[in-house]
Amino acid sequence: xxxxRKAVTAAASTALLxxxxxxxxxxxxxxxxxxxxxxxxxxxxxxxxxAGVAGCNTYVDTVHxxxxxxxxxxxxxxxxxxxxxxxxxxxxxxxxxFRTDSAGYNYYYAITNANQLYRVRIAPDxxxxxxLKLVASGFSxxxxxxxxxxxxxxxxxxxxxxxxxxxRGAIKLDGTVGAYSIVKSGxxxxxxxxxxxxxxxxxxxxxxxxxxxxxxxxxxSAGQLQQHMIRFSGSGGSATRxxxxxxxxxxxxxxxxxxxxxxxxxxxLGRDNATSRVFAYKDTDGYNFSxxxxxxxxxxxxxxxxxxxx
Length: 310
Fold this sequence. Notes:
- Helices cover 4% and strands 54% of the residues.
- It is mostly beta strands.
């Protein structure tokens, strides 16, 4: 994404954020007689420390040029703390966290500069031992990846091609990925994907579940912040839904991470290309098909290394 000029003062930066992000007007709500609500939390743990369960806490991953892996704990809109973690034999050009299992192992998917897809497993021991599994080669056409959680522990790997195709493949128990299918097209201007959790469409009268969705954020080269909902179970509602949360202003961020907060609240964390500063935005209802309730809440510390959407 293109960089935005570095603000000369913190006040100027705040003023730019307050006026420079064009939020979208309310979009069409869920189908008549239905409502869309968050389904569970993204619960990631590192050495027993859990993020994304209460408040607006999350982890942000970075990998230094020597392969040293850092994760940053982001505590709401107040603090960022750096932790040196694992060591990789390569620097990923795309990276997505999948899950933390019951034994405390963290699983990721990563694409190398040689265009190979690896599953990365990091142990909960002091050394943060890394195990790599080669999943596939020939990923030169893929510019970003993210992961969606399914029901009963299942998961999906989403790949975004340079031609604008979003494909989905089911993650198997052994870490490999099944056959991909195209779930969306026309995403050629989307530069980055970020996992934003799951949502459920239900009948407002009976409470019956009509469909389950993976929710993914995308940032376009025109500076739009977009929300993509991809149905993975059920037959109610649309198979996919697109909401433009902001119509301009987000090209300044090379990555946007999402913190799951209490209720349907989401927090978006953007890392500025020019300054490495992290800016926080609160979405009071992340599932109402609108960006009109997104507000700038503060400037956090810096994350100086390359970051990846989850």
